[in-house]
Amino acid sequence: MEKINYRELGCESPRFWTGMGVMAFLILLALVSVYHMEHNGHYVTGMTNQIVWGLPHVFAIFLIVAASGALNVASIGSVFGGPMYKPLGRFSSILAIALLAGGLMVLVLDLGRPDRLIIAMTKYNFKSIFAWNIYLYTGFFVIVGFYLWAMIDRKGKALYRPLGITAFLWRLALTTGTGSIFGFLVAREAYDAAIMAPMFIIMSFSYGLAFFIITLMAAYWWDDRKIGDVRIAKLRNLLGVFVAAVLYFATVYHLSNLYITQHHGIENFILLEGGVYTKMFWIGQVLIGGVIPLFLIYSPAFSASRFAVMAASVLVLVGGFFQIYVIVIGGQAFPMTLFPGKEVVESSFFDGMVNSYVPTLPEAMLGFGGVVVAMTIVAVAARMFPMLPDSLEDPDSI
Amino acid sequence: MHRLIDLKRVAVMMVASVLLSFATAAISDSTVVEGSKAAGMDKGGCVAPQMDMRRNHMEYLKHQRDEVVHKGDRSSKFALAECVNCHASKDKKGHPVPVNAKDQFCDSCHDYAAVNITCFQCHRKVPEEK
Amino acid sequence: MSNRKQQPDMKRREFLTKSVIAASTATIAPGVLLTTADANAATKAASSNTRWGMLIYTNKCADGCSSCVSACEKENGIDLVKKPEGHSDAMWDEQRPQWIRKVKLKDTQTGMVSNLPLMCQHCEEAPCVDVCPTGASFKRADGIVMVDRHICIGCRYCMMACPYKARSFIHADVAEQVVESPRGKGCVEACNLCANRLDAGDGNTACAEACSKEGHNAIVFGDLKDPNSAVSKVLKQSHSRQLREDLKLNTAVRYTNV
Q1: Domain membership flag for residue A1
Q2: Is the Cβ of A397 closer than 8 Å to some Cβ of chain C?
Q3: Who's near C39: CB < 8 A, 6+ residues apart?
Q4: Full domain range(s) for residue A36
Q5: Which helix (H) or strand (E) holds C107?
Q6: Is C47 contained in some domain?
Q7: How far is residue C207's CA from residue A206's CA, in Å, rounded to a whole number?
Q8: Does one domain contain both C21 and C122?
Q9: What's the DSSP call for residue A86?
Q10: Which of C101, C94, C97 is nearest to C119 (CA)?
Q11: Do C3 and B13 touch (CB under 8 A)?
């Protein structure tokens, strides 16, 4: 096998700095939104005492889930011994770190008291999955950081495989933790399911790979480097499997809920009568995030089209975003059953009513800022460090 | 070396106490509001000697806050509400002025020491009228 | 002369005083000290020999009466929380804090209508306490579930976990508070069974007091662990239930006729 040369992303400075300028501006907008939200209080957002987690949480969870998935390519290379994936390990790791950083930024800046972050770092309640997650997230940065070092530095070669395995196991724990945030909320019918944790893992595979394909193809287009057809085909097939698996898990989740009479209310809400959430589920999650990408990936008509791979990846992300929106917001919009067999006639606290949520611009800008932060980290790292192989042409012997 | 640090500390202390006395004198001769509970106390009119309070009030209050919130033990003589009761001054019309307002009791030192007080983001800043 | 000399050496002084007190207490007057502490109820810390709770007679709770709600708002300064200028009423209605609310129910089969006040149920196994990352949500020794707003970071996970939607997030700056109920933007809060009153030895909550004053007597408050308390006696005689008893949270607030 030929030797792989890694090189910094070389694109002319004006283009790079224009791109950076745009991203910096978007990050600035996000920070202005944060100031607006924290200075006035959360009343300026669409969040209420009924919908307590809003759009920022959708973005944050989306990015955190995708982060652990983005590491998959590196894991396939080092843990499962896939030689075709090994050259992509560095980029996969830095993308994972970047996505996690973006997601955590959004999560932290939406807190009621972000100034008390130090308390979250010093006081722990170990029964809380949130407290566990603080360790899982910081541990992820450290482990993947070392993993990246072992990939780049010759001195770290002996540690490459053990670190790869640790990182892989850690990312599984991390996504389980993120999924469990919802799985442990026994009171809310939409979340009361153990399948949430494995479903989040498979979602992370899918979103993470989609992010990876998009950023990889963009980087190689940016620097006029070449990616071989076989590599693209491998990534595309892998994405196809993950997208199908996400659809499968969603089906099992809803079918098992339908089996439980107590959960018919929430299923009826999400699948049939939930208005915007029903539309998001069928059109966003199933059609845009599942059926169309599968068609683009597996249809013989597009088998040679790189554009189709790119489009499928983008649609997977859009659909994934809707999926998390339906889980997070839809699950809260549906009223909790406090009095089985009774109908709430009057309540000043909206008991028994479907809650409405209209996200505001600052929330959206904060959330989107997280995505931009992730992309900025990737762009800067790829330009400053040898993250990507000079060429990803297919090897002569496969 | 040790000597030097010691000297420096003494100098800072002296400057600080001079400035402190200026700051408090600017409001009134005493830091305690006339007619309040503390005005009737000796030892500088507080629950503990003045120097002790200046140095350690934050520790006392923090300890008391945990005792009250977590244990429900309200027996401590240190309480933020009591600080406010005796140290929030009144304006010319007789209305109480927030104790953390500019140049008032808390602010006069905290501004100098550049320490941000967060107590009054949630706690009442003027005595409660009964 | 050094300025430091003027400062009392607190550590040393404290140590000396404490050892003197400890020594004298141990030798002369252990009994005296105990009795004086007991005599003053106001200085007693919450104890696990007590569990505060209440029984709500749903059939006595009057339709259209909300005196418990207004008493709570006055006691805890919730009426001082003002809508931010220019904000929509409908939005604010979903964002303003509510510790206790009146709910009117109709049985879907029989059509029977009932009224009840709903607030934090002070679970023994509280989900909000389990999920709180910093331990700001906690249960006091006497069973009161409350929020230490000094260490609450405003993540709202407890609000997601609470089966009773009992908690409120403070969405905007609060200009004025009552002394006994501090409150500020960005933290979560809920009913604390008027802990300040209980600590002061007043053994009743504002809502229960207001309900009796109206003549409804729908709320009986007291110590569930004391077999002679009014609430224990009525709980022994009446058929009561917990809301969402399927979750096995062992709530301290019980209801009849729901």
Answers
A1: no
A2: no
A3: none
A4: 6-389
A5: strand C100-107
A6: no
A7: 53
A8: no
A9: G
A10: C101
A11: yes
pTM for the full predicted model: 0.88
User: For residue A117, which residues of chain C lie inside 8 Å, CB to CB?
Assistant: 153
> How far apart, in whole angstroms, are the C-alpha atoms of residue A389 and residue A387?
7
Q: How far is B73 from chain C (nearest CA, A)?
A: 4
Do both C34 and C67 map to the same domain? no
Contact B124 C149 (CB under 8 A): no
A395: in domain: no
Q: Provide the CA B81 distance to its chain's centre, in angstroms.
A: 11
Instruction: With beta carbons under 8 A apart, name residues in chain B contacting C142.
Output: 72
User: A312 — phi, psi (to 5°)?
Assistant: -60, -40
Q: What chains are in contact with B, requiring at least 3 Cβ pairs below 8 Å? A: C
Give the H or E element holding residue A236: helix A229-259
What pLDDT sits at residue B2?
59
Interface test with A, best of C85, C88, C89, C94 (most A CBs within 10 A): C94
Span C6-47, pLDDT tens digits: 555 555 556 555 555 555 544 444 444 443 344 344 457 899
Q: In this complex, do B75 and C42 lie within 8 Å of one another by their Cβ atoms? A: yes
Which residues 74-103 in chain C show a CB within 8 A of chain A? Answer: 84, 87, 91-98, 101-103
Whether B123 sits inside 8 A of C4 (CB atoms) is no
Domain count, chain C: 2
Our CA-based measurement puts residue A108 at a distance from the nearest CA of chain C, in whole angstroms, of 9
**CB proximity list for C88: less than 8 A, separation 6 or greater:** none
| Option in C91, C108, C151 nearest A119 (CB) | C151
Residues C107 and C210 both lie in one domain? yes
8 Å CB contact between C193 and C205: yes
Domain of residue C79 covers 52-256
Of C232, C253, C173, nearest to A44 (Cα)? C173
ipTM for the whole complex: 0.91
Residue C44 inside a domain? The answer is: no
Residue listed under structure tokens 């640790």? A166
The DSSP code for A123 is -
Note the pLDDT tens digit of each residue in B93-104: 888 899 999 989
- pLDDT, tens digit (0-9, with 9 covering 90-100), for A275-331: 999 999 999 999 999 999 999 999 999 988 999 999 999 999 999 999 999 999 999
Q: Is A35 on the interface with C (CB under 8 A)?
A: no
Query: From the centroid of its chain, how far is CA A28?
Result: 22
| Residue A315's CATH number | 1.20.1630.10
Residue C162 domain flag: yes
C127 and C212 fall within a common domain: yes
Query: For chain A, what is the domain count?
Result: 1
Q: In terms of domains, do C108 and C178 share one?
A: yes
Are C56 and C143 within one domain?
yes
Task: Give residues with Cβ within 8 angstroms of A171, minimum separation 6.
Answer: A68, A71, A72, A75, A96, A140, A204
Record the tokens describing residue C216, joined without a space. Answer: 């409804």
Residues C87 and C165 in one domain: yes
**Quick check: C10 and B52 CB within 8 A?**
yes
Rounded distance between C-alpha atoms, residue A59 and residue A367, angstroms: 5
Q: Give domain status of residue C46, yes or no.
A: no
In a domain, A23, yes or no: yes
A296/chain C closest Cα distance in angstroms: 38
Q: What is the CATH number of the domain that holds C95?
A: 3.30.70.20
Length of chain B as a residue count = 130
First and final C-alpha spacing in chain A:
9
C16 and C123 share a domain?
no
C40, C174, C195 ranked by CB distance to B72: nearest: C195
